[in-house]
Structure formats: structure tokens, C-alpha cells
Automatic annotation (TrEMBL):
One of its GO terms (molecular function) is acid phosphatase activity. InterPro entries: HAD-like_sf, HAD_sf, HAD_SF_ppase_IIIC, MDP_1_eu_arc. It comes from the Eukaryota. This is Magnesium-dependent phosphatase-1. Pfam families: Acid_PPase.
């Protein structure tokens, strides 16, 4: 596990085939709904389920528990971003606002939620609209001031590796995000960072 620092200041995720196993703009018919307090599942108009890949809830909780030691001002949490070029941004946002992330089974403490949390609350930044991921990251950089070299981006589409032109560390996610891909991605960022230090 990539639990020992240093940590990137921002970790970004694509949505489709990175956090969930479908294209929200082609496989889903809105409106979406959730059955009661069901965790990690939202249904579309035809009761097609939408859920995060198995390891995603735990990964989100892990990142939320991380702290940056070298920040001089403000919050020292790792910023989590969603960056998607979907042509159905409203549907993607609706899904994130309905999906309930279960509490972490192995974590405890003041900062850890004991009840399910709406997925959207994990994302500090959201760039969800058609277009280049370069635009997404430039806007995030403008708002946060976080250097590109302190960002890691997980995405299933290799073409989105274009963000490396900015200095963002790109991690290809071939078959959905899982713990190994995530841990290896953070380790890759650390290695890259130590080589340029």
C-alpha cells in the first residue's frame, strides 16, 4: 500500500471505465435514482445499475485520510478531482451526488466517516464536460495554484496522457481502478518526483 508519504497534492480521476464500468453518456438513461440508503449503487430509468469498481470507495477514503506535511498555509489534505470529457456532464454529476460511498471498514478516528457519504463530497474539484483534459487541468491549476508536478491523473484512455505535457503524472488504468493500479501510480509519482528533485 502507498500509505507512507510523500503524497501528491492533487489526485485526479477520470470517471468512465476508470471509477465505474460504463460510459455515462451512452450506457445510461436518466433520470437516476437510488433505492433508499443503498451504498455504491445508483439506478438509471431502466434500473441499469451504476457503481464504483470494488476498490474505489476504499481508495477515496485512503486519500481523504492523507495529509501533506509541507504545506505552509491552508488545508493540508490531498485534493481529489474528477476530470471527465463526457458529453453528459449533468448525468455524471447526478450520479456522483446520488452514489453513497460506504464507510471504510479498516479505518477509525475523528476524520473518518462512520456513515455512508455521498460520492460528490470526496471531490474537491470537478471538471466534467467535453473537451481536452489539458483544459481541465489548466482550470484546476488556476483555481488551486497546485503545481502540475504535484498532480497525478488516473484515466483509462491513453490519449489523455497528453496532460504529461503540463507536468502532470499520468497513470493508465487499463481495466478499472483497483488498489494495485492506484498504489503503483502513487509510487510512480514518487519515483518521478525524486528523480527531478
Amino acid at each position: 500500500m502507498a500509505t507512507e508519504g510523500p503524497f501528491p497534492k492533487l489526485i485526479a480521476f477520470d470517471l468512465d471505465y476508470t471509477l465505474w464500468d460504463l460510459w455515462i453518456d451512452t450506457h445510461v438513461d436518466g433520470p437516476l435514482h437510488r433505492n433508499g440508503e443503498t451504498v455504491n449503487q445508483v439506478l438509471d430509468r431502466n434500473n441499469q445499475p451504476i457503481r464504483f469498481y470494488r476498490d474505489v470507495p476504499d481508495i477515496l477514503h485512503t486519500i481523504r485520510a492523507w495529509r501533506i506535511e509541507d504545506r505552509e498555509e491552508g488545508d493540508n489534505k490531498v485534493v481529489i478531482a474528477a476530470c471527465s470529457r463526457t458529453s453528459a456532464p449533468a448525468l455524471a454529476r447526478q450520479c456522483l451526488n446520488l452514489l453513497l460511498v460506504p464507510p471504510p471498514p479498516h479505518m477509525s478516528g475523528e476524520d473518518v466517516e462512520s456513515k455512508p457519504v455521498v460520492a460528490a463530497k470526496f471531490f474537491d474539484e470537478m471538471e466534467i464536460y467535453p473537451g481536452s483534459k489539458l483544459t481541465h487541468f489548466k482550470k484546476i491549476h488556476q483555481r488551486t495554484g497546485i503545481p502540475y508536478e504535484e498532480m497525478v491523473f488516473f484515466d483509462d484512455e491513453r490519449r489523455n496522457g497528453e496532460v504529461e505535457k503540463l507536468g502532470v503524472t499520468f497513470i493508465h488504468v487499463p481495466i478499472g481502478l483497483n488498489r494495485k493500479v492506484f498504489d503503483d501510480g502513487v509510487k510512480h509519482w514518487r519515483k518521478k518526483r525524486s528523480e527531478t528533485a
